[in-house]
């Protein structure tokens, strides 16, 4: 049965790590932390690289757009930092939301090059920006709670999860609400669409994985997956799902059956000692990366012959 195998770890941040994105190269990642630093790390060497950005406030979300050479950081007081990596300087600091910025989604419109950015904040507003100009086009009020995750579904609709447990589906042109429902008790922390089936998978504060039909939005399956909140989900090779939780564990799931294949926890494995907040899958090297409140960045591979 397939298992997650730890292959290494590194440490360098002095505070919790909240978000991971692709780095400047195909072999690196960026992380943002409660220590107010953004750092870059080599995946093959599993060590920090000579790059850092220091902010006045912690960043909760980081997004790297390699096409534009821009790094976007959503901070704890509602600001969005726009950093030009080529010039090595901050272009703008936008006071985007009343509270923290927890989520981004970059929208690209085919070959026309028209681009927009969605940002989700702590006050329940979804902001639509021209991109890369970063001029505010619309501010869309949703439920007055944190917008924790935004995902573009394969049918073009925008799926949103909030900390009050509400899930919403918006059309991608006018951003009118097509559907909304109570998806989890306590909050929807992460979501993604199933790569092989017409399903949406959500993870919540209630520790459940829930599967929803992407057309009717009816619940198909509810799985008590973790003891505490599920903070991130990652699809691997269209075959596996990995869930990361506040209960300090990782779980590997078979996407076809949604059976759990392997659960990684201490003391059997020397892994995270606190909440696991974020995941990143590097397809080229077939390495999974996890990070969380214990400031550790841990590297994993999947052994399919365990």
- Oligomeric composition of the shown chains: single chain
Q: What is the fold-level CATH name, i.e. the topology?
A: Methylamine Dehydrogenase, Chain H
Shape call? globular
Strand proportion, as a percent range, falls in over 45%
Helix-strand makeup class = mainly beta
CATH homologous group name: YVTN repeat-like/Quinoprotein amine dehydrogenase
According to DSSP, the number of beta strands is 28
Order of strands, main sheet, comes to: 1-28-27-26
Low-confidence stretches: none
Rg is 18 Å
User: What is the mean pLDDT?
Assistant: 96
Residue share in helix: under 10%
What is shown here, in short?
It is globular and about 50 Å long.
Textual characterization of the structure:
With 306 residues, the chain is mainly β. It has a single domain, classed as Methylamine Dehydrogenase, Chain H (7 Propeller), CATH 2.130.10.10. The chain has no helices and 28 strands. It has strands at residues 3-11, 17-22, 28-33, 37-42, 47-54, 59-65, 70-75, 79-84, 89-95, 101-109, 114-121, 125-130, 136-141, 147-152, 158-162, 166-170, 177-182, 188-193, 199-204, 208-213, 219-224, 230-236, 240-245, 250-254, 260-264, 276-282, 287-292, 296-303. The strands form seven sheets. Strands 1-28-27-26 form a four-stranded antiparallel sheet, with no helix packed on it. A four-stranded antiparallel sheet has the order 2-3-4-5, with no helix packed on it. A four-stranded antiparallel sheet has the order 6-7-8-9, with no helix packed on it. Strand 4 (37-42) and strand 5 form a beta hairpin. The protein is globular. The model has no long low-confidence stretch (mean pLDDT 96).
